[in-house]
Amino acid sequence: MSRTNSARYRSTGGGGVDESLFGSGQPKQRFRKDQLPSNAICISKADYEKMRVRSVLKSAADEEADLQKLEAIRAEKEKISRARKAKMMALEDEAKRKAKKSASEEISEARAQAIRKQAQEKIDQQNDLVKLLNTYSQRAMAFTIRDQQMADKHRRDAMEGEYEKRMDIAMEIDRLKELSAREKQENAKLSKRISDRSVIIDQIEARKKNKILQEEAREQENKQMLQTIKKYEEEDAVAAKKREEDIAKSRIEVIKANKASIEAKKNNKLREKEEVDMILAYQAKQDAKMRAREEEEDERKRLVNERQKRMLDNQTKTQGKQAEIDELRARRAMEEGERRARQSELWKAHKRKEDQISLNNARKQQQAEKAASIAREAATKQDEYESAVKFAYDMAERERRERDAKDKKNEEFREILRDQIQKIEDGRMMHRNDKEEEGRMIKKEMAQERIKLFAIRDKMVSDMKKKGIDDKYLSEMMGIDIAKLQMR
């Protein structure tokens, strides 16, 4: 206002003081009351009063007192104006509330209210303190999730350890059962072998007894055969003696007949000669027959003796061979049983070996699966660690960016504040009351914002507690000095 007035008012004299205001020593020209000079300037009464007041020389104390008085008057006027404005707005709101609204107006108002609420929430979310609270809440949730993962991991490890322990106990029980079954089988096999051995021993003893009985029977049979042979020899001797006697008798008879014939036919030499020749021929024939018969008898005896000897030899061989065959059969049966037992043992040993191999393979597979599980778990841990590191790095990077943005914003805000402070300092004498009122409004707004931030923090803490977040991870949020951070 003063600059405008000073620009509109120009000096008419050559000195530093406007002579038109205080008069001059030069004679004045007479003008008509309704006539204005060509260089005249018209000002308002208020401007005239201001210029008149400013033209009065005052001390600094008087100026300060006048300024305070003016500021008090203006503050009172502004207070009355604000009260009137607040009253008018309250009356307007009351009239709006009392006024009957249509459905479309209610819908529009509800929509506008919802939009304002969402906009206010977005504005609140853009607040640095709310962002910091969100960061702390995300960190608390991340730590809680990590604790849950660690608890799940410990629980899985405990379950796996319990499972491994149960499997080891089950495998040990199976091994003991298998050992017990093998011991029972070995004992049964041993008892069976003992019983088989006793049976074989009994069979051998029975064979020995049968062999002794057979030998005794064979000896008796041999004795009987020898007796029969002796009887046959005696009969042959008697028959041979009888034949010799018959031959002797026949010879005697022949001699007697020859003698009778010689005596009867002495008279006829030719007849006698013929008779003698016939007798000699007959005797030679008889002798040949007797020799042939004796040779046949000798041959028959030799054949009988050979046959008897052969029969005895064959019988002895047959009996010895039968015993050897029986013994060989028993030995072969025993060897067959032992071979079958060895084959059974070999088969069982092979089966045990295959079972052991399969068990070892199963154990190796289990160990490989366990190693793979450990490797997967290690990879999972590594991934979790890398994810945590990446998350921490991202969080640090985001916090750094937010901090840089915040620092930049704070710097801009400080610049703005400096400008505002400079402006306020420049116009402090004229706007001191406005500054105090602005300070009160700022304090009030900051107090309201602080209350709202406390409510937001309490709501976030309550929601996170409902989600099961541990209180120890909420200490950062609860320990935030909102008033201190708000003053940054």
TrEMBL record:
Keyword annotations from UniProtKB, A to Z: Cell projection, Cilium, Coiled coil, Flagellum
GO CC entries: motile cilium
UniProt region (Disordered), positions on chain: 1-36, 290-358
Chain ranges of the Trichohyalin-plectin-homology domain: 123-468
Pfam families linked to this entry: TPH
Residue runs in coiled coils: 60-129
Localization per Swiss-Prot or TrEMBL: Cell projection, Cilium, Flagellum
Extent of Basic and acidic residues compositional bias: 290-312, 323-356
Family assignment from sequence similarity: Belongs to the CFAP45 family.
Entry protein name: Cilia- and flagella-associated protein 45
Organism per entry: Triparma strigata
